[in-house]
Amino acid sequence: MSTSDAAQTGAASITPHKGKLGIMIPGMGAVATTLIAGVEAVRRGFAKPFGSMSQMGTIRLGKRTDDRSPLIKDFVPLAPLEDIVFTGWDIFGGNLYDAAKTAGVLDRDQLDSMKDFLSSIEPMPAAFDQRWVKRLDPKFQKVGKNKCDLANQIRNDIAEFRAKSGTDRQVMIWCGSTEIYIEQSEVHQTLEAFEKGLVEDHPDISPSMLYAWAALKEGIPFANGAPNLTVDIPALQELSKKMGAPIAGKDFKTGQTFIKTVLAPGFKVRQLGVSGWYSTNILGNRDGEVLDDPDNFKTKEVSKLGVLEHIFEPEKNPDLYGDMYHKVRINYYPPRGDNKEGWDNIDIFGWLGYPMQIKVDFLCRDSILAAPLALDLCLYLDLAQRSPALKHLGIQEWLSFYFKDPDSAPGVYPEHDLFIQNMKLKNTLRHVMGEDLITHLGLDYYGND
């Protein structure tokens, strides 16, 4: 079979993106409103989708000499932005125009230019339990006799949205707050135990798990943008495979951790040692307020700390990283709002052990960085569900590029190196489209004819 025939076969196996795609978002705060307003701004021609690989990225096909590098959105059958319809849940109520004003991410003039659209979207009442997010006081939440009742109310919301919106497919992405840290327990081990736990109101089933279960039961892909346990449990991974509803997570890789996954691979390939890496953050948005609680910060800390350990592999490189001290701090500082500052002090050493230092001060906009990641994840998960090669895999490890603490199969360590993640993602797209994978070996350019 020729390369062109293989490509046609791969593309033909993917179900076309007919009709509308519904994006359903638990937690319609800063990230969600920035995502939704941004998509509408692009649709109206007010802006370009900067930061979105799916919209602006290219992908090389074949040899470098072939000069085939189409836009990803022109290569794979992604749902176009014009076909997206949004809905979601929130504990504060009100329409998205008011929510976006409260979040304070986007300029008022920009919001006013889309006031009609944003005002037309009103979140549904959320399933919420203050035990999991202590610093927030809900004003708009569901009431149910147990967690099974609440989860089924979410399923009813999904059914109602399908009927009213006329969407043919849906994707759910968690943009809610970071929940308190927990580890897996017996209720998480099998789908049977989990569903029994829903009925029995088991304390180890979090609100985010209710949304994930509801989505997966409806055959809807689910992405986890927070560091919560959520779909990192055998029960929901089992349900994902059974229903052919892909899952991905966890914790959007936005500011400081994004920089770490750029710098750390560079130190490693140059065999430069690291004796210490101190990271601190100040932010003033709702995320910062939630993370001001130690139990919620623990969840984020575990997510952020694992990055360097997996990249550096100190057990394999003891002389370089065996004694590295890694500290992460997050400080709630209301005046900063959504404009987070991530500061890193990195103590490295080189030839003969001589020390050097690197200082990084990233004054970033948290939701501006997160919104395009959320868009890409929704579009790629929809593609995965329409692709026979991906649909029943459960965890979509090829989407690790987007996460601080990527999910991976049991017994398989997650890949954190941003550049390997990028190669994995693009090779997966080539694979499902029937194109040759690219290894970058390149010897065929220099061989004999």
Automatic annotation (TrEMBL):
<dbReference type="InterPro" id="IPR013021">
    <property type="entry name" value="Myo-inos-1-P_Synthase_GAPDH"/>
</dbReference>
<feature type="domain" description="Myo-inositol-1-phosphate synthase GAPDH-like">
    <location>
        <begin position="255"/>
        <end position="367"/>
    </location>
</feature>
<dbReference type="Pfam" id="PF07994">
    <property type="entry name" value="NAD_binding_5"/>
</dbReference>
<dbReference type="Pfam" id="PF01658">
    <property type="entry name" value="Inos-1-P_synth"/>
</dbReference>
<dbReference type="InterPro" id="IPR036291">
    <property type="entry name" value="NAD(P)-bd_dom_sf"/>
</dbReference>
<comment type="similarity">
    <text>Belongs to the myo-inositol 1-phosphate synthase family.</text>
</comment>
<protein>
    <submittedName>
        <fullName>Inositol-3-phosphate synthase</fullName>
    </submittedName>
</protein>
<dbReference type="InterPro" id="IPR002587">
    <property type="entry name" value="Myo-inos-1-P_Synthase"/>
</dbReference>
